[in-house]
Amino acid sequence: MEFLILGATDTVPAAIGNSLIQLLTFLILLGALSYFVWKPLKKVMDEREQLIHSEIDDAEQRRMEAVKLKEENEAVLRETQAEISEMMDNAKQQAKKEQEAIIHDANTRANQMMETAKADIEREKEKAIRDINDQVADISVLIAEKMISKEINQKDQKDLVARYLQEAGGK
Amino acid sequence: MEHGNPMWTIDVFGLPITFNLSTALMIVVSSLIVFLIAFFMTRNLAVKPTGKSQVLMEVLMNFVKGIISGNMAWKQGGRFHFLALTLILYIFVSNMLGLPFAFVAPNDDHDLWWKSPTADPSVTLTLASLMIVLTHYYGIKMRGTKAYLKSYVQPVWFMAPFKFIEEFTYNLTLGLRLYGNIYAGEILLALLIMVMASGAIGFIGGFIPMMIWQGFSIYIGAIQAFIFVMLSMVYLSHKVSDDH
């Protein structure tokens, strides 16, 4: 091979020998590296790729679930808020009604009480007037007795005075 | 600077087969280094990586995956992933081995024992041949013999001789590009060492170029490993993909 390639000091048999050694060694190296190094390394890298893929899928799924849950929650929240406001309205109306009823009741009772009080007052007044009339009659009798110093029948006197008084009241 | 090579010949059924012992040694050494590095960097594998080593290996895996998927669909190219990974690591480590030092035996021939295995054309041509043979194998396996043969007469029938020769030139260029780059790098390193060993002035004058050239050689080694794998995948995709 010396004639062919500059600097090569090999002869053709030596080139064959070197080639054989190189070929054999390289094939052994290829087998050994493939078995001990490349295969495990590739396996790990593939595993990682799969892991990343599955993690991405997982994350996507979780995101979708989260969106669904959020929508559900919002719906529940809206429903609850509607219910609450409805309950508030009901309560307000109820309270108003009760308020009106109480006020009405109180008014009625107050009116009643005033009526009663007026009637009482009227009755007392009449009674008082009657008493006064009686007393005035008695006093008038006494006065008349003293003034005329003449004894008359008390009963006749009374009737007389009552008649006068009646006449006076009638005027 | 001429170096000799330690040779060892055996007869296999009357055929003399000679082994270049230093190349054989370096092939085994770089294979062992590649295996041990890759092996110890991928212990304690976890889905959630704890150390830097796993991350580094995964970066390499994704890098090679990018090379392959730049040329063909991953559905077709996935099966070449481990091959390309092993190839790029092996070539890279091989290219690096000759850089830090060389070991020359103190005998009359100055036998060179420590060097890059890729500075030997038989090594790089073997790797290139392996890749080219694989392109034909997978071309037939994945597309069928008919489609494989038909690809030689497309787009027109008289392209067939060129296409046929092309297969051999692919092999030669793929192997010799790598060999040439690495071998030339080692020659220049050896020359610089000679300069530095010549005396005090030579040492001072050669030190900076030595450092520059070593740094550049690291770059070349990495680039050549990348190019080798890249072109292998291009050739594979030519044979494997339907649209070519």
TrEMBL record, chain B:
<feature type="transmembrane region" description="Helical">
    <location>
        <begin position="187"/>
        <end position="212"/>
    </location>
</feature>
<keyword id="KW-1003">Cell membrane</keyword>
<dbReference type="Pfam" id="PF00119">
    <property type="entry name" value="ATP-synt_A"/>
</dbReference>
<comment type="similarity">
    <text>Belongs to the ATPase A chain family.</text>
</comment>
<keyword id="KW-0375">Hydrogen ion transport</keyword>
<keyword id="KW-0406">Ion transport</keyword>
<protein>
    <recommendedName>
        <fullName>ATP synthase subunit a</fullName>
    </recommendedName>
</protein>
<keyword id="KW-0066">ATP synthesis</keyword>
<keyword id="KW-0813">Transport</keyword>
<dbReference type="InterPro" id="IPR035908">
    <property type="entry name" value="F0_ATP_A_sf"/>
</dbReference>
<keyword id="KW-0472">Membrane</keyword>
<feature type="transmembrane region" description="Helical">
    <location>
        <begin position="20"/>
        <end position="42"/>
    </location>
</feature>
<dbReference type="InterPro" id="IPR045082">
    <property type="entry name" value="ATP_syn_F0_a_bact/chloroplast"/>
</dbReference>
<feature type="transmembrane region" description="Helical">
    <location>
        <begin position="82"/>
        <end position="103"/>
    </location>
</feature>
<comment type="function">
    <text>Key component of the proton channel; it plays a direct role in the translocation of protons across the membrane.</text>
</comment>
<feature type="transmembrane region" description="Helical">
    <location>
        <begin position="218"/>
        <end position="236"/>
    </location>
</feature>
<keyword id="KW-0138">CF(0)</keyword>
<feature type="transmembrane region" description="Helical">
    <location>
        <begin position="123"/>
        <end position="140"/>
    </location>
</feature>
<keyword id="KW-0812">Transmembrane</keyword>
<dbReference type="InterPro" id="IPR000568">
    <property type="entry name" value="ATP_synth_F0_asu"/>
</dbReference>
<keyword id="KW-1133">Transmembrane helix</keyword>
<dbReference type="InterPro" id="IPR023011">
    <property type="entry name" value="ATP_synth_F0_asu_AS"/>
</dbReference>
